[in-house]
Amino acid sequence: MRNIAVISDTHGTVPDRLLTHLSEADEIWHLGDVTRPDILIPIQNLGRPLIVVNGNCDPRGTWPETRQLEREGCTFHLQHRPPPIAIPSNDAILFGHLHRPIDETMDGIRILNPGAITGPRHGSASSFAWLRFPEPGKWTWKVTAL
């Protein structure tokens, strides 16, 4: 089973307890607001593929604004800010920015937010999510508190 750790809004901080979780990932997706690219070094040192999109607090042009990724026959759109509308031909849209976990459906497409590593809001805890693929064409999403 492939395990992808999805994180967002680290805002210059990568807690050791997050690195412990990330060490179990096959791949890591960061949904923006890294703020300082050097804080990704401990994550990169884990030796897992790391995909990042630019957030509103990141230096402009450091990473792509969006990414379209296919894994195990499923398509995911990554961006930092919440989508104003569902983007067709995706199984899910993953975003950060709001600092709280979200799992909703818009026009038949899952809209997912893993929450924030730094500065959770609306009573949520610091969190990230696991995107898992138990079999090709099937995936699950689980938010995990730090």
From TrEMBL:
The Calcineurin-like phosphoesterase domain sits at 3-131
Q: Which Pfam families match?
A: Metallophos_2
Q: Where are the transmembrane segments?
A: none
Please give the InterPro entries that the UniProt record associates with this protein. Answer: Calcineurin-like_PHP_lpxH, Metallo-depent_PP-like, Phosphodiesterase_MJ0936/Vps29
Entry similarity comment? Belongs to the metallophosphoesterase superfamily. YfcE family.
Q: What is this protein called?
A: Metallophosphoesterase family protein
